[in-house]
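pinned: reference chain
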Amino acid sequence: MPNSKGLIFDIQSYSVHDGPGCRTLVFMMGCPLRCGWCANPEGWEARRRLMFRATKCVRPQRKCRRCAPVCPEQAVDGGEKHERIKINWDKCRHCASFACAAACLNEALTVCGREITVEELTRILNRDRHYWGSDGGVTFSGGEPLVQQDFLLAALKRCRESYIHTAIETSAYAPWPVFSDVMANIDFAFIDIKHMDPDQHKNKTGVSNELILNNIRALKANGWPGRLIIRMPVIADFNDSEDNINAMIAFFREIGQNEINILPFHRLGDSKWTQCGMVYPYRDYEATPEHVLDHIQELFLANDILCYVGHETPF
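pinned: its C-alpha cells
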C-alpha cells in the first residue's frame, strides 16, 4: 500500500508540552517552509540525509580516513592528516548509500531519517499508552506532517480505531482537501502563524501565508470540534511589532479564535544547521527578552484573547 510506510527522524516518549497529558511525539520528515530560525532543519526534506558532527570526528587525532574512500559520490574529502573531513553537500544530496556513515565508528557521520510502518508505529503507541495517563496520546510534528498525508491519515485512522487521542503541530500549509481530511481525525492542534503579512511571511519562510490563513478560516467556519491553539514564534525585527500583533488580533476576531501560544526565540537549532552543512542565519540573535513577551501578551489579553508564553499552555 502506498501509505503503509512513513519517513520520520525521531520519536520521543513522555512529552508534556505538545498537547494534553503525557504524549508520544512523532517527528515526520518533509516541510514546504524554510524558516531561518527552524530548530529541526534536518526534517525539511522528505528523504534520509547525512549529518556530520565535527566534534566527534577523530581524523585530527587518529588520522582516520575510513569514510572518504567508500563515498560513491566522492563527496567526502579526507583533508590533511591533522584536519577534520570536509563534505561537499551538493554532491552528498544525490547519495542513497550512506556508506560513509556505515564506515564511521565514532558517529561523526550519521543518517537522519528512517522508514516506519503504521503497524510499527501502532506497536510503539500501544507500548507508551500505559504511561500517558487519561489525557495523553500521540502528537504528530516535524517537519510538516501534512507532507506525508497518506501515511499520516493511515496512522490517524488506526489511532481512532484504538481510541488514542490525536494531536498535530502544523503550519497548515497544504491544499484544503488534504488539510480537511487530516483534521477530521485530530482532537487537538497547534497551528503556526509566522506573520500576518503575506509578503513578509514569504520573505522569511519561502511561502505566502494565504493558504495557511484560508485553511484556518475554513476549519473554524466548518465547526471543527477539536481544540485549536494558534502559535507564533516571536522573532525580533520580523513579527514582534504592534502592527503585526494587531493584525493577528483582527484575524482572531474574524474567525472567533481566543487562544494563542507565543514562543520565545532560542538558538537550539544552531548545531543542527551546522551538522546539515548549513549556516544558521540567527546565530547572533539573543533569546527573546521577557519584556517583549510580556508586552505582546498584554496586547492579546487586552483584547480578551488568552495568551500563553512558552510552555505555560494549560491543557
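why pinned: The two ends are 36 Å apart (CA to CA). The chain has two domains: 5-46+114-238+251-259, 49-112.
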